[in-house]
Design a protein that fits this description.
The strands form four sheets. This protein has a six-stranded antiparallel beta sheet, with helices on both faces. It has a three-stranded antiparallel beta sheet with strand order 4-3-13, with no helix packed on it. Strands 1-12 form a two-stranded antiparallel ribbon. The longest helix is centred in the N-terminal third of the chain and has 58 residues, at 10-67. It has one domain. It has helices at 2-7, 10-67, 208-214, and strands at residues 73-79, 84-88, 93-97, 103-108, 111-116, 119-124, 127-131, 137-141, 145-150, 153-158, 168-171, 175-181, 200-204. It contains three helices and 13 strands, in the order ααβββββββββββββα. The protein is of the alpha+beta class and 215 residues long. 33% of the residues lie in helices and 34% in strands.
Length: 215
């Protein structure tokens, strides 16, 4: 009986079976990590940007309400999700020149921008814009530019909302609060003429491609 026990292969089969099952499990985990993890991260980042797009739409509405004296102050919290949110008071520039060459407006508009891994969303000049790492800028929501036509007389209305203050930035996994307060308002205008007149509007911006699409 001792000889039969020593020659038995049952114990060897159990060890080999365990090794095979363990190897298959480890291989499956490795494949999931190598293939599935990047897809999960990509989906997570896309969800984060979709959430941030909606936040910037709300920000656009809040700033409009403050700029047009519908509310003295508005506060909005944004989830950063590992990106950075920066206020650039001096970025973006708009110049308006009438048909006789007189400059009616010339100044910076400022920008609020969210950036993560080369992809960015920005509020600038009353509009919301987006840029991908290797592509041109896209319009998410138009700035307030209107053309009124009354009996052939056309009036162009451009709402230029300026982001003032000091440059500041915050980043990480937490949330950031954006506070919009009314500062001051002015209404430069170009006198109407009896004949059609060209108006030159120049926008200098990192999102100039999207501005051009709007115009």
């Amino acid at each position: 009986m001792n000889r039969r026990f020593l020659e038995s292969e049952s114990a060897v089969s159990e060890v080999i079976g365990f090794i095979l099952v363990f190897s298959i499990i480890m291989l499956a985990i490795g494949v999931i990590y190598a293939v599935g993890y990047p897809a999960i991260q990509s989906s997570k980042e896309n969800t984060q940007f979709q959430s941030m797009e909606q936040s910037f739409m709300v920000l656009q509405s809040d700033i409009k309400a403050v700029a047009f004296d519908q509310a003295p102050v508005k506060t909005l919290k944004m989830s950063l999700g590992g990106g950075s949110l920066t206020v650039y008071p001096g970025k973006g520039h708009i110049t308006v020149i009438n048909g006789t060459g007189i400059t009616k407006y010339d100044g910076s508009v400022g920008m609020i921008e969210y950036e993560k891994k080369g992809r960015s969303i920005a509020y600038e000049g009353g509009g919301v814009w987006e840029r991908y790492p290797a592509g041109s800028a896209l319009k998410l929501s138009e700035p307030r530019i209107f053309v009124h036509d009354v009996a052939g007389n056309r009036t162009v209305f451009i709402s230029i909302i300026n982001i003032s203050g000091v440059m500041s930035s915050v980043g990480g996994e937490g949330a950031a609060s954006v506070v919009a307060r009314f500062n001051r308002s002015s209404s430069p205008y170009i006198d109407s003429t009896s004949v059609p007149e060209n108006v030159i509007i120049t926008v200098t911006s990192e999102y100039a491609d999207a501005w051009g699409e709007v115009f």
